[in-house]
Amino acid sequence: MGRRTFQRLLKLPVLLQPRPVPSHRSPSAAFFCQSHRPVYQHQPYRYSPARYPPAFGPSRTVRFLRSLLWATLFSMVGVYAGVGYLKGVYRGQTRVKLGSLADIGIAAEIMTEMDQHPSVQALKADPDFEEIWPLATNAEQTEKMKTTTDGKDIHHLVYTAFRGSRGVFPRAFYNRSRHILVMVAACSYGCEGEYGHLHNGAIETLIQESIRILAQFWFPPDMTYKLSELYVAFGEITHPNTIWCITCMPLATVGNLAEVVDEAKTAESRGQWSNVWPDWFNPRDWNQMTSSIVATVSPLDGHPIKQPQQATANAVGHFQVEDSEDWPPAPPPHKESFYGWTSREQSQEANPPNDSEEG
């Protein structure tokens, strides 16, 4: 450290005194002094529109249509790619080989689950219902069903295309006193349609088979009949891997059917959901009533007769019956006046046969 520096450190700091302001001038006098700048002369504003160079290219309409075309093209490509992806995922699912151990195990699990279903338990506990072999169309096929495990000898759609764990598992119960047939069916992945929904063809096949089985009990054994009309009206979308109940009964045994039809037509005219009946259906024709069978499809969790639920599908099947003296049967006494029916005994007494005319 130098000597001068040491001397500077020994000196006491000098306190600066505030600068005195003259008394004849105010502190802000400098701001009020006359400026030496020239006074600004205001000039009136003159508007001059901006000039833009003319636009070169297509018009707005052409550009809008071009944008719309590209948007439509990209949306179509996106929808097509999405549908293709869903189909690829659906088809890429692993399918169980028919007759393999996995197929037998899955089928056994489905049968066990179906046996424990509340509807099956309620029908088995009901003494009025008896379980029958569901889709056998004659006695020979019924015997083959009892002796054959896989049903190869039975040439039928349900037992050929819908066999194994991929198909349907039907069980049928019949009430002989009321002529009611209830088919409880479990549909597996082989019955799927597009986007995982249950194919309507599988439901229609089960309805047709249920109607045919009931026709075997309803019509006399020596009568020739053939299913000529089948009308199915699907309501809500159905899903596989669900147990469905198909309830069938002859239209002649349905009480107050005319009121049901009138209520359905009234609800349909008001835009509400209702049972859809075919155009050829006439509830006041007793011959048609005795030759037609109605069926409803619904997901039940109890007894289908004591605990009915809203149906997801309705069907009406009409049979063409050959002319017979024993058919159609006479309506119940409380329905004779409604159908204008006269019993055969009364008609014979009113119009006795004339032997002279026969001779």
UniProtKB/TrEMBL annotation:
<feature type="compositionally biased region" description="Polar residues">
    <location>
        <begin position="343"/>
        <end position="359"/>
    </location>
</feature>
<feature type="transmembrane region" description="Helical">
    <location>
        <begin position="68"/>
        <end position="86"/>
    </location>
</feature>
<feature type="region of interest" description="Disordered">
    <location>
        <begin position="322"/>
        <end position="359"/>
    </location>
</feature>
<keyword id="KW-0812">Transmembrane</keyword>
<keyword id="KW-1133">Transmembrane helix</keyword>
<keyword id="KW-0472">Membrane</keyword>
<protein>
    <submittedName>
        <fullName>Uncharacterized protein</fullName>
    </submittedName>
</protein>
